[in-house]
Amino acid sequence: MRPPSSFSCAGALPWIVVGALAGISFFAQPVKFLTPGLTTAQLASVGSTIFHGSHAMQWIALGVLAVVVVPAKVNRSLAWFVLLVACGSLAVQLLLLMPSLDLRLSQLKDGAVPPAAPHHWFYVVLELFKFAALVVLARQRLAPRLQGELP
């Protein structure tokens, strides 16, 4: 058995990010709508707060992945590509979709019923792209020198 390497986090870190994203986006967010006694506006407000906090965490995580994980991968070109897909998805969510979703939330809080719009579905599709990209990054092999195959 080889001793633990200082680079072992390069293998585990992407899976931690995948787990955090899955837990927040695909479990916590949908489950909140099962909470009894809260209005749709209150639930949407909680969701907005969670997503805004999640975006900050994701930018930090993607930055760490760029510094620690991508350089350790065998196929760095693919690693950079999938990381850029994840970053692009997050940027579109934050810069293009969240303002519209926040406006809809504001209308809900004011008691209005906003007209149907596809923004939430676009957000979900981008979340799936981001998730898939991070899974591809996590599944990539580490460079042989990090796996103990080379001296």
The total beta strand count reads 0
How much beta, percentage-wise? under 5%
User: How would a crystallographer describe the biggest sheet?
Assistant: none
* Radius of gyration over all CA atoms, rounded: 19 Å
Count of the separate structural domains: 1
Shape: elongated
> Low-confidence segments, ≥5 residues, pLDDT <50?
none
Main structural class:
mainly alpha
The helix/strand order is HHHH
The end-to-end span amounts to 15 Å
Mean pLDDT equals 88
Helix count, DSSP H or I runs of 4 or more residues: 4
> Helicity range of the residues?
over 70%
List the main descriptive attributes of the protein structure presented here:
single chain; 151 residues; mainly alpha
Descriptive account of the structure:
It is a single chain. The chain is mainly α and 151 residues long. The protein has one domain (9-146). 72% of the residues lie in helices and 0% in strands. It has four helices and no strands. The protein has helices spanning 9-31, 40-69, 76-109, 119-139. The longest helix has 34 residues, at 76-109. The radius of gyration is 19 Å and the shape is elongated. The model has no long low-confidence stretch (mean pLDDT 88).
Short overview:
This protein has 151 residues and is an all-alpha fold. The protein is 72% helix and 0% strand.
Topology of this protein?
Elements: H1 9-31, H2 40-69, H3 76-109, H4 119-139
Helix pairs in contact: 1-2, 1-4, 2-3, 3-4
